[in-house]
Amino acid sequence: MLIERIHLHHIQLPYVHPFETSFGREQHREAILVAVESDGLLGWGECVAGSGPWYSYETMGTAWHVLVDYLAPALLGQEIGQPEQVAPRFSRVRGHAMARASLENAVWDLLGRAQGLSLATMLGGVRRAVAVGVSVGIEPTLEELLAQVEGYVAAGYARVKLKIKPGWDVQVVRAVRERWPDLALQVDANSAYTLADAARLAELDAFDLLLIEQPLHHEDMVDHAVLQMQLKTPICLDESIHSPEHARWALDIDACRIINIKVGRVGGFSAARQIHDLCAARGVPVWCGGMLETNVGRAGNLALAALPNFTLPGDISASARYFHHDIAAPDFTLNADSTISVPAGPGTGVEILPERLAAARLRYLALG
Ligand code: OSB
Ligand code: MG
After folding, report:
1. How far is the CA of 287 from the centre of ligand 2 (A)?
2. Are 53 and 157 members of one domain?
3. Per-residue DSSP letters for 227-262?
4. Is 163 noted as a catalytic residue in this protein?
5. Domain check: are 109 and 212 in the same one?
6. 335 located within any domain
7. Residues in the chain with pLDDT values less than 70
């Protein structure tokens, strides 16, 4: 298909509940919705960069710049028959995985719609519903945190991830574990610790956690390998894994026993599937991370999590956990067994709601 035009929509949506991690508290999600146009069809992708360089160096500003000045020009006017043809056209661009992913993923959606194939089918998905959990932010008090968890458990989530940081860790995990002895529980530090905290982190071994996510520096693998030797709980890397190469390096030195795959962080569905395949070959489980996406990104995450080695519950919660009025439909809801059904329609299987998109929009640009 000839890529004729590319549309960028920078949007902002207020969260249902503020989301706090070790790097700060946020009230809104910003995103760039990218559409590629061919033959009267549009394919959509979501850029999950942040409003500031907190989780990653990528921001709405850097992604807009890289999309407009480098990625869109590399794709406009090109004939694309297979989604795997996109990433090689971006290979001169170092980093900026979230910008690359948004445009590559839009092409996956476009080709899926043109061919009448769901994203899950295109990727090689093997399940119709995927196990999911909820990522619970840091709260002002332990009481408020317990009330949040209570609400999610009552809503049917069988797996909870707690955000931790120094001063908000062992006592919080102990309180949640005492109240819900059988809940599948894991923690995410977003790089808030150093090796000097190894003894503190080892105290978490007492609480039967599924994993400890990215305790150390956001680019580190060496210290994580040292820490893993001192912990019974598996370490899972998130921030440190930007590509299939990073995944191989981490596994080669035993820096982790589990990998969180976020399609934006690794540069698109092609790279995400490569990491999945590498981990499958090495017997390392993966799970699908989340970036508080709209229904466009969420649909893609569900399709990805349908691949066979996504054996741990994903950070893919129901739409209502994030936004009151999403920019795409239908909303995703939680099934009784703490799964969400994988969309079956062509491409992502969700449709953009033009009025909602316009209401959330901060800026728009058409290229080509
Ligand atoms: O570290 O997994 C993370 C959200 C933004 C940035 C980083 C992370 C997260 C989450 C949210 O944990 C998970 C979700 O989308 O529900
Ligand atoms: Mg994380």
Report:
1. 11
2. no
3. HHHH-SSPEEESTT--SHHHHHHHHHTT--SEEEE-
4. yes
5. no
6. yes
7. none
